[in-house]
Design brief:
Layout: E1 2-6, H1 9-18, E2 21-23, E3 32-36, E4 43-46, H2 51-65, E5 69-78, E6 88-97, H3 117-130, E7 134-142, H4 149-159, E8 161-165, H5 168-177, E9 182-190, H6 212-221, H7 226-266
Parallel strand pairs: 1-4, 1-5, 5-9, 6-7, 7-8
Antiparallel strand pairs: 2-3, 3-4, 5-8, 6-9
Length: 267
């Protein structure tokens, strides 16, 4: 069994609708989890945003499901000009950048983690089979969403990062400690030139989305952000579609690679 750990419902809804899932009723009240009714689908665990939530969800998922592998998935922010919304980013490495933006600096990379090679091969094969546009590179986990284009570009240059998120390193760290193969795959929501409205920052909050009224009140107070929110809605649709296509392709590819490895070991 593979467990896919994400943060928000809007990231996973396409995957859930593409298969046959039941909600896990005994999941912790601040998480949401879905169990597949078919063997070729992953368990979906949604933690909410931020490393602390991601860590707790990963520990719970390991205890609950005893997975053979873990996928960290979700949306990310691009740090370089080539990536656009809907592009898939496969992490060749993940690293953590704790603290506030004022504390970020060039330096310690000792907390960088490398994904499992078989999982990495399956991910790269899956995007090729699925015909998805993708990039390989480092994903940096930050303590809060980088909302400005200047910050995103600086992080890309200073750390040679391809993308940013707020959860993946925490998931990878626990999977590594538990000796469980893992991979981090993200879909670009906002490109490097896009200034993200502050209302989208959900760090520390659960997986349930804000309601329509919350956005309406925000737009009334900050009407200048309305075009950016409309653009972000379209980007979210593209990013979600790419994640859904990737996950379907990945599960098929991983099953095939696993069968080949099992056959080789038995000979």
């Amino acid at each position: 069994m593979i467990v896919a750990i994400g943060s928000l419902q809007r990231e996973a809804i396409g995957i859930i609708r593409s298969g046959d899932y039941d909600r896990v009723e005994d999941a912790p009240k601040d998480f949401i989890a879905f169990r597949p009714l078919a063997e070729n689908l992953p368990v979906i665990v949604l933690s909410g945003s931020g490393s602390e939530r991601a860590s707790r969800a990963t520990l719970w998922a390991i205890e609950k499901f005893a997975p053979e592998a873990i996928i960290s998935f979700g949306f990310c922010g691009a740090t370089k000009g080539d990536s656009i919304s809907g592009d898939i980013i496969i992490a060749s490495r993940v690293t953590d950048l704790p603290g506030t933006p004022f504390e970020w600096s060039i330096g310690d990379s000792t907390n960088s983690l490398d994904p499992d090679r078989t999982m990495l091969l399956a991910a790269r094969t899956a995007v090729e089979v699925g015909g998805l546009d993708y990039y390989n590179g480092m994903i940096v986990t930050v303590s809060q969403v980088a909302t400005t284009s200047g910050t995103k570009r600086w992080l890309g240059e200073a750390f040679n990062a391809t993308a940013l998120d707020t959860e993946s390193h925490a998931i990878a760290k626990i999977a590594t400690e538990k000796d469980i193969p893992w991979i981090v795959v993200a879909s670009v929501l906002d490109d490097s030139e896009f200034d993200v409205p502050k209302i989208v920052n959900r760090t520390g909050f659960g997986p349930t989305e804000r309601g329509f009224m919350a956005y309406l009140k925000y737009v009334v107070k900050t009407p200048v952000d309305f075009p950016a929110l409309m653009r972000l809605g379209k980007s979210s649709t593209r990013a979600r579609a790419s994640l859904t296509a990737f996950m379907i392709s990945f599960m098929d590819v991983h099953e095939t690679l696993t069968a080949v490895e099992d056959l080789s070991e038995s000979e």
